[in-house]
Amino acid sequence: MNPQERLADALYGLGWSTVKKLPEPAAVRLGRSVADLAWKRRGKGVRRLESNYARVLPDAGPERLAELSRAGMRSYLRYWMESFRLPTWSEERISTGFDPKDLHHLTDGLASGRGVVLALPHMANWDLAGAWVTTRLRIPFTTVAERLKPESLYDRFVAYREGLGMEVLPHSGGAAFGTLARRLRDGGLVCLVAERDLSASGVEVTFFGDTATMPAGPALLAQQTGALLLPVTLWYDDSPVMQGRVHPPVEVPGTGTRAEKTSVMTQALADTFASGIADHPEDWHMLQRLWRADLDPARSGPGGTA
Asked: Does the predicted model carry a pTM greater than 0.85?
């Protein structure tokens, strides 16, 4: 483990051991203070967040983008403060901490005996949404986690999410897809954060007017297992309760090759994600490059590079 990895592991460990002991109002104030400090420093992540927001709101001027990136960092740190504290929340606090709309798409799908894939972007607090599903609905589910460096940090995240009632599979290694498919064929639930492709086999989509790649997994799982594919978007309002919506199913096209069907379905996911992000851009925590033009240094997109 190099010094940077040791530092990252120590900082996250400090967060999990210390922040969860704070009273909730103190944790909220701390998160806002850390967010404002990071925003003022305008590091690489903040500049990339602002550049991504420039694609969501192409007519926004510098002042509006700066205002939005500040709100975005506050939302991002709210995610972290909540996540550090989630293991100490009571079942009642978790059960009342999320208010999803149109939940019938999920409950009806599971009641029919079909598996369900929930696909969502990096919005608000997806861990809280998962904890709500296992606590309020008493429904177990399986998800996939990116392998982080150092390995000890990845182990912390896996233990944290398993402690919330989730089955967590590593993204790398190739075995995750088969396990997810088995869970779905058994009528189970799979939840995937699905707007950032971490492989070399993503599907090209048009996202806020330009080309990006998104994971093929959600669409392929729905095709191969007969599971419902349901997009989900999340956001915060001015209350302590996170908001969300389960959108109508993304249907499998009746004709076309597997690749063609996957392309159509992934584009439908991208369109739903874009609608939710446009409504609540400050709650989209994308501090990394996403669009093809930003990933390729020979090209440049709106907002420049960071």
From this structure: yes
